[in-house]
Amino acid sequence: MTVFVADKLPDEAISELENLGQNVINHPTATASDLDSGLSDANVLIVRSTVVSKSCIENSPNLSLIVRAGAGVNNIDIEAASNLGIYVANCPGKNAIAVAELTMGLIVSLDRYLGDNVVDFKAGKWNKATYSKADGLYGKVLGVIGVGQIGSEVITRAKAFGMPVIAWSRSLTPQKAEELDIIHAESIEEVASKCDILSVHLAINNQTKGIISKEVLSKLKDGAYFINTSRAGIVDEDALFEELKSGRIKAGLDVISDEPEFKQGEFTSRFQELDNVYVSHHIGASTKQAQLAVASDAVDIVRGYVQEGQVRNWLNRCEHTDAPWQLVVRHYDKPGVIANVMNELKQADINAQELTNVIFEGKQTACCTIQLDAEPSSEIMKSIRTRQDEVISATLIQL
Ligand SMILES: NC(=O)c1ccc[n+]([C@@H]2O[C@H](COP(=O)([O-])OP(=O)(O)OC[C@H]3O[C@@H](n4cnc5c(N)ncnc54)[C@H](O)[C@@H]3O)[C@@H](O)[C@H]2O)c1
Ligand SMILES: O=C(O)CC[C@@H](O)C(=O)O
């Protein structure tokens, strides 16, 4: 197989892929436009933030697996991949600690004006007078939106700072909050109005786009900090800009909507004109520790695929087929048995949606489970059962 790596992965990961016997094409500086015209040979594509568009997917005839070496998958056109039966997988949680560390770093930096301290120092200015006005973090309430892998790591670290935590997450119950020793909020607005620092850790999708709305931001206390290390689209960025311009709040952002695709070069952003915002260069995941952990997970996904045909962390699998019937056929393990069962179903225009076949010790017998979109008639069932040299039993289950 050919594995195309369209982003920077550690050298160790490239060697591991080669050691799997794969033909590896390593393109660490690839951009979306490099991929848009398609990859003629690639069977597997590994990316970090590089955009994998519909055009790339539709013009890559041999592509069967896309691995996101990271958590968020909004840079991959998953619908286009699903339409062509291409697996999409990611590496969740492997960079969560790194992002949580940056989150705490942004909070400390805002409180102590660390960015400005350094800029003034390099410019030959001593400014203890201005930078001695930090508030301190102990006892400040941290609001967390999204208690997933990163949100959980942030909570752990906030507690070590002596910061009480109030959180909202779609699956956070009062009981779970009690177990985590945090305060449960009924809504994002409630968190925003009660916290001193609001940090967002949601995945971006149709439901979460713009979820940190103008209204949510307006609920923040005067002097509050807003931290975003998730995705720019989670927040109404125009509303955020206006709040920051008014000087009412401060922000630490690792993600902004005009983030350049290139890794190094000149660029402009409206946030550059504001003193009360620190923008880091989308480096949440970029510690050596996290990159090694993510890359090793990505290689492991490829290993499972090429060696066992299994895709770990498969994201675009249909969770529920809605198949109303399941046919379980225990059978002798010999050629044509499943084909004969499928032929019976085909003649009745019944579609098999998911099919698994497992084999018993001794390799004499096997069991095939088939999910069906319609009920086979008693004649079909009888016909399947009649082949006694092939079929041990055939059972129909309504799901
Ligand atoms: N700055 C960086 O470099 C960096 C690195 C890693 C991840 N991220 C971003 O952080 C996000 C979170 O990462 P994670 O590892 O914690 O992921 P995760 O899957 O563990 O957590 C995602 C959270 O989003 C919530 N969520 C998802 N869909 C939702 C919906 N429709 N409504 C309400 N809540 C919803 C989940 O319930 C969960 O709490 C990623 O999706 C990615 O965009 C950024
Ligand atoms: O790979 C990166 O540099 C960023 C990854 C990060 O945004 C993620 O979602 O995992």
TrEMBL record:
Database matches in CDD domains: PGDH_like_3
Reaction(s) the record says it catalyses: (2R)-3-phosphoglycerate + NAD(+) = 3-phosphooxypyruvate + NADH + H(+); (R)-2-hydroxyglutarate + NAD(+) = 2-oxoglutarate + NADH + H(+)
EC number(s) on file: 1.1.1.399, 1.1.1.95
Keywords: Amino-acid biosynthesis, NAD, Oxidoreductase, Serine biosynthesis
Residues annotated as domain ACT: 326-399
PANTHER family: D-ISOMER SPECIFIC 2-HYDROXYACID DEHYDROGENASE FAMILY PROTEIN (AFU_ORTHOLOGUE AFUA_6G10090)
Job description of the protein: Catalyzes the reversible oxidation of 3-phospho-D-glycerate to 3-phosphonooxypyruvate, the first step of the phosphorylated L-serine biosynthesis pathway. Also catalyzes the reversible oxidation of 2-hydroxyglutarate to 2-oxoglutarate.
Family per record: Belongs to the D-isomer specific 2-hydroxyacid dehydrogenase family.
Protein name: D-3-phosphoglycerate dehydrogenase
Organism: Rhodohalobacter sulfatireducens
Classification of source organism: Bacteria, Pseudomonadati, Balneolota, Balneolia, Balneolales
